[in-house]
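hey so i finally got around to running the thing on that chain from the lab meeting. sorry it took forever, my laptop kept dying and i had to restart like 3 times. anyway pasting the input first so we r on the same page abt which one it is
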Amino acid sequence: MIFRQLYEPVSSTYTYLIGCPETGEAALIDPVLPAWRRDLEVISDLELRLVMTIDTHIHADHITSALQLKREVGSRIATPGLDGLPCADVAMDDGVPLQIGSLQLLPLHTPGHTDNHFSVLTGDRVFTGDALLIDGCGRTDFQSGDARTLYSSVRDMLFRLSGETLVYPAHDYKQRRVSTIAQERNRNPRLGDDRTLEEFLEIMAGLGLPYPEFMDYAIPANRQCGRCPELLPPHLEKYREQMQPNRQG
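ok and heres what got predicted. didnt touch it at all, straight out
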């Protein structure tokens, strides 16, 4: 498997490139609109062909580049089937593999951050979106989020994967890149060790996080697979395409 981890600094989002060395087919997990040119450059440099974009959920902090990439190279758009987005080409269902060349990507329904959130398992790694972060988890106070459901998704599904499974989250705000199921199972301060449901509910209820500044624009845009709003307040223009590609991976 060809693999690259790419970082978008405005929303602190990780995008993951997965490529099949036999066929040259590739997929992007959680691509971000400002970085679509960078992603295509990386794919071209690796002599791959983008055939699919995969969004783990409807994001509230950035706009997906799925629609833009489809316009550019014809890649298919995969989103959670439970969201029923008319713009999607592939409706992800729990346990029904996505095929990228010779590679199988297995969607796992892991609700809680949002009601229709998915993680994606392939080989020795799992892409956990916002369900499980490094030493943390996604918030549960909007978009039909539910802390009780997230606790079950992580403890009863993700934590039952092999301890050696690599954990690649959709975000990290301290520039950490990867964890493992064993590490998160043992030391995640919100969900790990012997943390009880009641303790987790208390933690999540007390976070006191601010209202996401871009959410009112991002969610409607992402329900259209990344149709960028025509008018944005000046302080939110940073979420549009960046002039200088930021190539990391």
